[in-house]
Amino acid sequence: MAASCKTLKFCYLLKWQKCTTNTTGLSQFRLFSKDSRQYDYDLLVIGGGSGGLACSKEAAELGKKVAVLDYVEPSPIGTVWGLGGTCVNVGCIPKKLMHHASLLGDAVKDAAAYGWKVPSDKEHCWQTLVMAVQNHVRSLNWGHRVALKDKSVEYLNAYGTFVDQHTVKATTKNGKETLITSDKFVIATGMRPHYPEEIPGAKQYSITSDDIFSMQRPPGKTLVVGASYVALECAGFLTSLGFDVTVMIRSIPLRGFDQQMASLVLDNMKTHGTKVLHKCVPRQVEKQSSGKLMVTWAHQFERLTTTAAEDFDYYDTVLFAIGRQPCTRSLNLEKVGVEINEKSGFIIGARDESERTSAPNIFAIGDVLMDRPELTPVAIRAGKMLAQRLYNRSTEHMDYVNVATTVFTPLEYGCVGLSEEAAVQKHGEDNIEVFHAFYKPLEYIIPSRPHEQCYIKVRA
What we know:
Blueprint: H1 2-13, E1 15-18, E2 29-32, E3 41-46, H2 50-61, E4 66-69, H3 85-90, H4 92-111, H5 126-150, E5 154-156, E6 159-164, E7 167-171, E8 177-187, E9 191-193, H6 202-205, H7 209-212, E10 222-225, H8 229-240, E11 245-249, H9 259-271, E12 275-278, E13 280-287, E14 293-299, E15 310-315, E16 317-320, E17 324-326, E18 362-364, H10 376-391, E19 405-407, E20 413-415, H11 420-427, E21 434-438, H12 442-445, E22 455-459
Parallel strand pairs: 3-4, 3-8, 4-5, 8-18, 10-11, 10-16, 11-12
Antiparallel strand pairs: 1-2, 6-7, 7-8, 9-17, 13-14, 14-15, 19-20, 21-22
């Protein structure tokens, strides 16, 4: 009898409310109690990249009910991929595999000097490489899905947009919409390549790093527009794989990196056969009846003007790598009070806890955060630490200072800490010392590889 009374009392305190059907045809039952609202999940992660997956699994291990929403908007030419985000599908993993393939090509050239009998008619098969890379990527996609299932994290292949502080609308590929509620949210939607909308034909006929790693036909003669690490890495491995590659640079290479080191990287690429167009900007991309792409560009002397000298050439592939944009504009963040930088779209984190947004129950990790390293290991670590703070009373925060990174150009460049330019700006030229040395790697000696760009630099 006592148990029945308690059950009746509990039922009396609960109120069931059916939301009225809205203009989109959505309806949902929500459970309200006298003191607190009940949600579908404790944590809903929007974005299935490395950071989001790490955060979701960590929270699930701490006993929370967790779901991950992940949806890939097709690139302009229709490229899509599976669970795992940029790093797994169109970033670190396929990039490093293709970089390694290019290094093997260089090693084959050196092998004869080391006594190996190497056929003189060796050639590379692009389709074989792409198939091998994509097979590995797909195995990682499946592995991520299995890992979520093992941790009891629900995976929903749908695009999430905020409706209110505790509700997200999930839209599937076929247009089915569902309302999902959660106590807390983590935004981990990452970034996508930027297309120059103002350049005729650029978006219609060009590709980006979203497309190159799964492209079925060989790239052929390629123009890479941009001087970011993505641009130089792609140009580097394509050149070493035997393609005719030109890099078009508007201003400086590897902006944000030490410029002396960036110059050495670029000089080494030139010795490998990559052509470089300095201080040039594309004006137009036109597709010819032959299928070739005619690219017209302007030479930027002091500044770009309508009277700047123009030139053109024909290419099989044009790849733009001129920066990336955070995927935040279509999340309806304004509805829930999440502050973003209006110009860039990056989410502005709190000063005392950068993963916390201006909305008390909404957090962000990874590339979408303003002024944070755009690196996979950083997002993974930040995601795990956030889950520990939310659900295990941890007080440990991610340290974003002095994070090491590597640029996988033919001459690999690793760095940590401030560039010389940043150190001078922060401490003053008279307050820093620079120690440096050129060196010759042992493995370069027998095949007589050029080593003029092998260099070590330390600032103190």
